[in-house]
Amino acid sequence: MDKQAPGGGNPRPPAELVVESVAVIKRKISGCRKENGMTELTSMMNIGKEMARKLDSVGIGSAEELVRLGAEQAFLKVKERYPNVCLVHLYALEGAVCNVEFNSLLEGRKKELKEFSDFLKG
Q1: Which 3 state secondary structure label does DSSP give 14?
Q2: Is the pLDDT of residue 114 over 90?
Q3: Cα-flanking dihedrals φ and ψ of residue 11, to 5°?
Q4: What is the pTM of this model?
């Protein structure tokens, strides 16, 4: 069963943000394609080799897939396999999805993500 975010919010970014993020990603990293035509995770902001490896190990193998899932759903998958991932990883995923540095996320959004992370700790 999927976990509900605190406050009953949808854990995915709004559709228009996803469409905008995918368009920005495609423009900026059009030369970073895998053989299957999908965009490399490491071409996204905040995603290094280690985070890309973790994402790939849970079935998220492209930038498009990460944007489609959203930061919270991706974090849930990663956290199940790697329980030691923390809030900073969630911020990094959100920054990647929104195409901003993780430390530039809006304070309100960081608060929502912290509540989500705390919720997962139970």
Answers
A1: coil
A2: yes
A3: -75, 0
A4: 0.73
Please tell me the predicted confidence (pLDDT) of residue 93. Answer: 98
CA pseudo-torsion sign 108, 111, 117, 121: negative
Please name which of 68, 66, 70 lies closest in space to residue 54, comparing C-alpha atoms: 66
Between CA 60 and CA 71, with CA 65 as vertex, the angle to 5 degrees is: 80
Residue 3 is predicted with a pLDDT of: 47
Alpha helices in 1-122 (DSSP H): 15-28, 49-57, 63-69, 71-81, 87-98, 107-121
The set of residues, in sequence order, having a beta carbon less than 8 Å from that of 61 and lying 6+ positions away, is 34, 38, 41, 55
Task: Name the pLDDT band for 55 (thresholds 50, 70, 90).
Answer: very high
| Interior/surface letters 90-103, b for 16+ CB within 10 angstroms, e for the rest | bbbbbbbbbbbebe
Give me the residue label for tokens 């943000």: 17
Angle at which helices 107-121 and 87-98 cross, to 10°: 130
The residues facing 39 across adjacent strands are 33
